[in-house]
Amino acid sequence: MNKADIGIVGLGVMGRMLALNMARNGFRVAGYDLDGDKVMALNTAGDGKAIGYQILGDFFGLLERPRKILMMVPAGKPVDAVIAGLRPALDRGDLLIDGGNSHFRDTERRAAALEADGIRYLGTGVSGGEYGALWGPSIMPGGDPRAWSLIRPIFEAISAKVHEPDGTLSPCVAYIGPQGAGHFVKMVHNGIEYGDMQLIAETYDVLHRGLGLSALQLHDIFARWNEGDLQSYLIEITRDIFATMDEETGKPLVDVILDTAQHKGTGKWTSQSALDLGAAASMISAAVEARMLSSYKEERVRASKSLSGPTPHFDGDADAFVDTMERAMYAAKICSYAQGFGVLRAASLEYEYDLNYGEIAKIWRGGCIIRAQFLNKITSAFARDANLPNLLLDPDLGKAVEARQDALRQVICYATANGVPVPVFSSALAYFDAYRSERLPANLLQAQRDYFGAHTYERVDRPRGEFFHTDWIGSGTAALSSTYPGDA
Q: Is 193 in the active site?
């Protein structure tokens, strides 16, 4: 075999599928893993174009210089362990790529440490799961721009492709930005994914538990929705899930799956990062918390026997309500993406990533888990205004939510009255109402902060940036209030 164009360390499902994708697109691939079964699986499927090794020296000996090595290992300590194992054999100018879901701060730390030895590093988000890895994922590389030029031909070849209006094909990959920008954008992608999935789950709960619709009825509804504004990969797979039957019981498979959802941390990281940046991400946070609450299964079973609430029922026009649900979902989805891109904007300013939001929306249109027709509208919004501060301020997207807000309110009112929890729908409406409010009750909050902590406040009748403090206890009726301020 000739020298390999790229090496892949970690031949689990994602690593192996990416290797086969590269081989299918004409690149020579060397793989490395300590697990002999994984090496054999690649050698069996690679047909001589992708070859796996268990001996690190053999793996390195096959790589073309400068070496390009893609690490596909779990985030955290495993990445550091792999880097430590590879580092003695790396030379100046070699490129390491982390294709896992690493935290962007870890990526920046690793890049800085390797740069001292002249080793290039890219933190690269890869989305699309097993199928996407094999047939075309969405790829989000960030880090040294010189390193991007080394790997660009391979990544563009293996990425998903999307048809443009003019008939051309666009690869779903683009250089995201410096430092940890690639992994930051992938993290936010996953946070948006959490919100999308929870919106679908809440819709299912309202229609199934509230209206009593069966899985097969829901299959038909989601099939119809997938032909309209909600068309997306997640709506598509949900449609398929509702039509899948359990061979053991004969019931819809979804009905026999335990109602506890797991999470790997990227949604939580998005929520935490948003808080650090001062960016609103209430829908992502609500989705993460919903998964956490689902894990309290035993407690919830106990509570269901001791805590009472309304029994869901529906007496109206079910078909009309299903249409209302569709409109509410679309409105909430726009709010969710407004929050996600708001986090990206805050990070771009704070960390000097210089993100291209339209380009990000563009590469999310194919390959990734949140791929959807709707992303074309976001791409168009940023084409109209590259510095758009919020998607709700785009004329088309803002009007779309405005026109559907009654549907969103109706769904939340029904769910609340019938005891069906809809935390992400509720967060969407609260966000929309807060964002469109010229005046919010934060004036009272700031008065309270000034009262107990002398934190000062600004006035509506003075220029921004002028701050004032009041001796609340000694002035007017404030002297009649409590004199025991808190300490927070």
A: yes
